[in-house]
Specification:
- The protein is of the alpha/beta class.
- Helix content is 41%, strand content 19%.
- The strands form two sheets. It has a six-stranded mixed sheet, with helices on both faces.
- Helix 4 runs parallel beside helix 5.
- The longest helix is centred in the last third of the chain and has 23 residues.
- It is globular, with a radius of gyration of 22 Å.
- The two termini are 41 Å apart.
- The mean pLDDT is 88.
Length: 309
Amino acid sequence: MELTGHVGFSTLPDQLVSKVTSDGFTFNIMIVGETGIGKSTMMDTLFNTHFDNVPSGHECQEVQLRKQTYLLQESSVRLRLTIVETVGFGDQINKEQSSCSHQVLADYIDSQFEAFLQEELKIKRNLNSYHDSRVHCCLYMICPTGHTLKSIDLVTMKKLDSRVNIIPLIAKADTINKSELAKFKLRIMSELAANGVQIYQFPTDEETVADSNSAMNGHLPFAVVGSTDMVKFGNKMVRARQYPWGVVQVDNENHCDFVKLREMLLRTNMQDIVDTTHRKHYETFRRNRLAEMGFSDSNYASFTPSTRR
């Protein structure tokens, strides 16, 4: 139906942009990997800053989680970023302890879902001001062996894939040559598929990003190199790792997939990752928890207006 004059609701997109910019955004990342694999460096590299990092050794007897929240600002956009980093993951000599490492991660993710559910179920709730701590993305850093995934990797990712959006990364990709890296990527994806592990796929239903996202899905897992060191290369300074034989540039797509990761995670699909967390992973948790609490659709149908009074 056509209007005969200007009404004004065509400004709704502008109103929405103004509102969300004023409110700010929230993004919560869990980064998983062995001690010394470069988790902290990768987060510093991704956000082009230096977070408060405390180096951890291999002496942890059990897996722990280190959580930090930061308020970041880029131009007029504010981001509340929470980083949950594993400490001692995969370090346990005892195989039984090591195989239970994934439960610590799963329990943490579930506890954040539970906290959101409890807020949602309150009679007087205020979700607008509630600090949403649900984990939106799991960056899973794989040791660059060039062979196969470790059993702890398969077990952990299988345990988490119904709870969180997993993006697998090959850490320290500059330690493998290009031909070995290509074979390693194919082997990882084959093992994940064979074991029924569902990783996050960049969405292809939106026309503006369909082609780029589809192409990037074919590059998973991303082979990354992290560094915040500035090295002189030619007549310019670049973020890189300096070796006796040369320089590996972080932001050079011929050297690694870091730029692809940053583009897909932060610049193109961050909102979809947040939305997928809510409509898929949280909804699955919510449905199961409400069923445990005795709620069902039939119960709700019997809750008529007369019973409400």
